[in-house]
Write a structure and sequence with these properties.
Length: 230
């Protein structure tokens, strides 16, 4: 089966009710990113950061996968699919996608706040994380999320995956965040690249990208059934 790789961002989960980052009224309007999604913010005000992620975790737990997530799971019968996501929700997994790589962490997991790269993750549910909750190494538990200024350890694996793609579908990302945004350039020559976004996007001129404009839950199922016929 042909290798189909997806790079998804907050836009694919927008119709499940989860806020995006840079749309108007997005999360970063409410919380300036430097106050909640950096290691410095964690050191300065850990309870504000924990509140921010506890609120988002509750939203993730009450959200449901939408038709875009579901269509990607269903297309696994026609293609060898890998999802590379910038999202920290579990909607791809809950829709049934089997091979999902999270670049920026997973909000339903907690980890050590002192051992970088410690993969002794703890499941975190609706109870959230409070000051005083401990990771297995005894340090304060923190969300398993990559903050700005922190390294993105899954990038090398993501680059290998994108380089294998015969079809690359980029869904619901403003391509503003690096190094994730550079993955587009790792696609091999001859790969078909689609960019599904409800808004116009500033796709690079150097690469031919087919922009599919519209909301992902409506446009993606249609696109997937079309490429299944090729
Ligand atoms: C690192 C986890 C180095 C947290 C996130 C200047 C230039 C270049 C780079 C930098 C720079 N200054 C700093 C940097 C580096 C920085 C960066 O890229 N900053 C940006 C803002 C300029 N990057 C980092 O810090 C990264 N680390 O570089 O480390 C290093 C190396 C070694 C050692 C030490 C350090 C870490 C970046 C990761 C940050 N964490 N998330 C959390 O989620 O709370 S990023 C955050 O943004 C989310 O993960 C999110 O997914 C991601 C990207 O946003 P999008 O997903 O694209 O969402 P956005 O709202 O932007 O766009 C939504 C899109 O969907 C829109 O296009 C919209 O039109 C569309 N849409 C909306 N609704 C729909 C839709 N489309 C279809 N249907 C719909 N219904």
């Amino acid at each position: 089966m042909k290798k189909l790789v997806v790079l998804s961002g907050a836009g694919i989960s927008a119709e499940s009710g989860l806020g995006t980052f840079r749309d108007k009224g997005g999360l970063w309007d409410e919380y300036p990113v430097e106050e909640v999604a950096t290691y410095e913010a964690w050191l300065n005000n850990p309870s504000l950061v924990l509140d921010f992620y506890n609120k988002r975790r509750e939203a993730v737990l009450s959200a449901k996968p939408n038709n875009a997530h579901i269509a990607l799971a269903q297309i696994e019968k026609n293609f060898d699919v890998t999802i590379v996501t910038q999202n920290i929700d579990d909607l791809h997994e809950r829709a049934g996608s089997k091979d999902v790589l999270h670049l920026h962490g997973q909000i339903l997991l907690g980890k050590s706040s002192v051992q970088e790269g410690d993969s002794n993750f703890v499941n975190v549910g609706a109870e959230g994380i409070k000051l005083g909750d401990r990771a297995p190494d005894g340090s304060q538990l923190r969300p398993h999320v990559v903050w700005f200024g922190e390294p993105v350890p899954n990038i090398p694996r993501a680059e290998e995956i994108v380089a294998e793609a015969e079809i690359l579908i980029i869904i619901g990302t403003s391509l503003n965040v690096y190094p994730a945004a550079n993955l587009l350039y790792k696609a091999r020559r001859g790969a078909k690249i689609y960019l599904v976004d409800k808004n116009d996007v500033n796709a690079p001129k150097s690469i031919s990208v087919h922009h599919v404009k519209g909301e992902a839950s409506k446009t993606l199922p249609q696109l997937l059934s079309e490429i299944s016929k090729i």
